[in-house]
Amino acid sequence: MPIAVIGMSCRFPGVNAPEAFVRLLRTGGLSVGPVPASRLALWGEAARVTAAGLLDDIAHFDRTPFRISANEAPLIDPMQRLALEGAWTALEDAGLSPGCLDGVSAGVFMGASTSDYAIRMAKAGVATKSNPHLLTAAQNGAISGRVSYCLGLSGPSLTLDTACSSALAAVALACDALRLGQCDFAVAGGVNALLSAESFEVLAMTNLLSSSGATRSFDAQADGFVRSEGCGMVVLKRLCDATAQGDRIHAVLQGWATGHNGRSNGLSAPARAGQMQVISAALRAAGMGPNDIGAIEAHGSGTALADTIEAAALAEVFAGRSGPPGALGSVKASLGHLEAAGGIAGLIKAILMVRDGFVPVQPAFCTPSPRIDWAALPFSVPRITRSWTEDRRVVGVSAFGMSGLNAHVIVGAADTGQGAVQDAAGPYLFLLSAATSEALGARAAQLLALLQAPEVDLGSLAVAVSRRWAGMSLRAEFLAGTLAEAQSAVRQIISEPPRTAARVTGKIILEAAEGLCEGDRMQLGRIFPDLVSGADADARRATTVCPETDGGHLTMAEAVLALHRAGARILPHRMETGDAGRVDLPGYPFCRQRYWYDTLPGQAGGASQGSGPVEGG
Q1: Cβ–Cβ under 8 Å, residues 98 and 158
Q2: Which of 67, 125, 280, 409 gets the most CB atoms within 10 Å of its CB?
Q3: Which H/E stretch holds residue 6?
């Protein structure tokens, strides 16, 4: 059963969105570099790290959309925070409003491994403080659990640790859960945060870290990898469901497999037989052969031995492949090694390749490794970025863990024959919301920029905005029949964003609902689950909403606007107003503030005690 990728997000070093990731890949850019002074201060004077791939605001977080208290936020591991914001952005990209998914059968599957924040808090003595939130603050199981809890998702929720294959194995688990009917859709990905120098020292002793400051996968000068941090997420749905529901499909996962090396040369050592087994199993699951694969997004750890073993495994699996050589690359050359999140970085790269039709140049590749038998390998490392024009574009993605667990996923281009959605005539309904007045103003500014873009489709934009931005506590809404009307309404919101939360708890009655046909009333009840009629038994305690009408009978758009404005609980994903996923919208404007354990009452600051990085660190 194929699985559709209907949403995604990424926050990698130097990359905060898939569009920025595409630009980095196309240009062969690098996101690793010297470690800033603020991060060295966090790690301590003993840190001897020359290069890494780092986020510039790892200590910052917006707790308000997730309803997390100011007392709990400083304790929460940054990996949990990254997962929360990443899941929110990916769900919006999938055409959903993340704040309105209570009770939805959606799974969460996250890959994570180390927990530097827990180590830092223990050293600072935070564990001795009386705080009930410590129990879940830094346990990796809460990475997936907190996403499910904060968004109200009721499907399976698991955090997986198989070392560097964690994220891709989590994606495989999510696909299995969808195939078995355990959830309606799933959020899957991985996260990594580099908050301690100790883990660098351990890896340095094993000669796995690059001394040159670059990850040179499959190159003659390969001398190890550069460590990186970040988070990547995808939203997955059964392909048949995604097609039936009109979702935008970025790519299709055709097959996947995981498998352990078994008894080999060592628990953490790469094993050719184990890699061959899992790649072959994924090909069988996809119903494909060697000639169907146009590119391999390899694990490519950048160590001479591991790259040689991986190339030998690929040569044997694809020995019968004919035609021009396929492309062989590794995202680690661009981003560094995100470790537990490395597999999701490679998967998102492959999704972008098949979706946008390009094969990116491999950075830091000059001379092919002489240890690899290139004549036996039907793949070559791209030295320039080129277009990928074939109708059938398929990439195999690998991730191998020091636990011995290998994972491989086959990614194919989606059918581009999805028909255009016919929008209803205006006026068009726009529903906006946010957790704070500041964020609502920023959200309105995002909408104004979209309304000012060339060739904007007002109807399609209204559908996408209302489905993906509605339902939070601070709300704004308007009807617009023309572009000028919409721009004027948005400017008004920007100048005076609402500062009082709109909220109706309990049942609600819509006055003059008889102006709606039976079908509209039924649809309205699905969108607003607390809506009742005056004849219902619950009506005695219900709140009455009186909509403004533009003369004549009440329209469906006017009814939705009035109920949203009043603060009624809304389920935007039930709005049957066309496709909400095929329009690109910016992600939620998170208003991040610094939250670190040294800001708790009674905690002393100072770098030696583990103070968080300053802005830009």
Answers
A1: no
A2: 409
A3: strand 3-11
**Alpha carbon separation from 545 to 513, 537, 562 (Å, rounded):** 10, 18, 7
Tokens of 273: 């037989």
What separation in angstroms does the CA of 437 have from each of 475, 487, 588? 9, 19, 13
**What is the structure's pLDDT at 608?**
33
Q: List own/partner pairs for 541-548 with CB under 8 A and 24 or more apart.
A: 541/506, 541/507, 542/506, 542/507, 542/508, 542/509, 543/504, 543/506, 543/507, 543/508, 543/509, 544/508, 544/509, 544/511, 545/508, 545/509, 545/510, 545/511, 546/511, 546/512, 547/510, 547/511, 547/512
Q: pLDDT-derived band of residue 613, with 50, 70 and 90 as boundaries?
A: very low
Would you tell me how many other CB atoms lie within 10 Å of the CB of residue 271? 20
pLDDT higher than 80, residue 423: no
Q: What is the pTM of this model?
A: 0.93
Structure tokens at 279: 């790649």
Q: Is the peptide bond before 18 cis (omega within 30 degrees of 0)?
A: no
Residue in the structure block whose two tokens are 């990928």: 388
pLDDT in tens, 371-389: 999 999 999 999 999 999 8
**Strand boundaries in 378-464, DSSP class E:** 379-380, 386-387, 394-400, 405-412, 428-434
Dist. CA 38–CA 610, nearest whole Å: 12
CA angle 588, 592, 593 (to 5 degrees): 165
d(CA 219, CA 302): 8
What confidence score (pLDDT) does residue 518 get? 85
Q: Are 339 and 12 in contact (CB under 8 A)?
A: no
Neighbours of 597 (CB within 10 A): 25
Under a CB-based contact definition with an 8 Å cutoff, are residues 604 and 598 in contact? yes
CA angle, 255 then 105 then 503, to 5°: 140
Helix crossing, 18-27 with 342-356: angle to 10°? 80
pLDDT of residue 599: 81
pLDDT for position 615? 31
Instruction: Measure the CA–CA gap between 267 and 379, rounded to whole angstroms.
Output: 28
Burial class (CB in 10 A: 0-12, 13-18, 19+), 420: exposed
Closest CA to 231 of 367, 64, 58: 58
- Tell how strand 326-329 and strand 379-380 pair up: parallel
Distance CA 571, CA 72 (A): 28
Rounded distance, CA 296 to CA 310, Å? 11
Return the bridge partners of 60, or none.
Answer: 594
Beta bridge partners of 328: 296
Cβ–Cβ < 8 Å for 235, 186: yes
The CA distance from 297 to 427, in Å, is 47
pLDDT, tens digit (0-9, with 9 covering 90-100), for 511-564: 876 678 888 888 999 999 999 887 776 667 888 888 887 666 888 899 999 999
Neighbours of 265 (CB within 10 A): 11
